Amino acid sequence: MIAIQLRRLPHGTGLPLPARATADAAGMDIVAAEDLVLAPGAWAAVPTGFAIAIPPGYEVQVRPRSGLAFKHGVTCLNTPGTIDADYRGEVKIILINHGPAPFPITRGDRIAQLVPAAVQPAEFVEGDTLDETARGTGGFGSTGTR
Ligand SMILES: O=c1ccn([C@H]2C[C@H](O)[C@@H](COP(=O)(O)OP(=O)(O)OP(=O)(O)O)O2)c(=O)[nH]1
Ligand SMILES: [Mg+2]
Predict the structure, then answer these.
(1) What distance, in Å, lies between the first and last C-alpha atoms of the chain?
(2) Which GO terms describe its molecular function (predicted)?
């Protein structure tokens, strides 16, 4: 368990904090802080009304809610979104409407979910050769016809 500091912004007053819908849910649902309508094909950065300070060594992933995707064609455009540990601005959700109808969002609607994750530190080490593997340079469907 890690603690993520959260600062509520003025327009987030009264909104629920990110929360799991069930005890063992991976995602913590977050709600919209304003009303808007997403036209078919349109996207918007939807405010959440809070900012966070993630401990170094962690990130928070912003993931779509499958219900919105399946029922309405509404998803996160940049999924999974990345909230960096050093970001102190408002968390925003970039939603896109792939559906055929305008999609109204009401302040307080659950629009996405946050999944905290550990970040694996790594560095790229440049060299002239790479070790050989069975796959080699094959990719993009090289292992079959489908
Ligand atoms: O869905 C998202 C994705 C990102 N962010 C915020 C937090 C993140 O730390 C910052 C930058 O995101 P990212 O690195 O994905 O975007 P970028 O285009 O690389 O911007 P930057 O140059 O600011 O890193 O924007 C959000 O609020 N919601
Ligand atoms: Mg970036």
Answers:
(1) 41
(2) dUTP diphosphatase activity
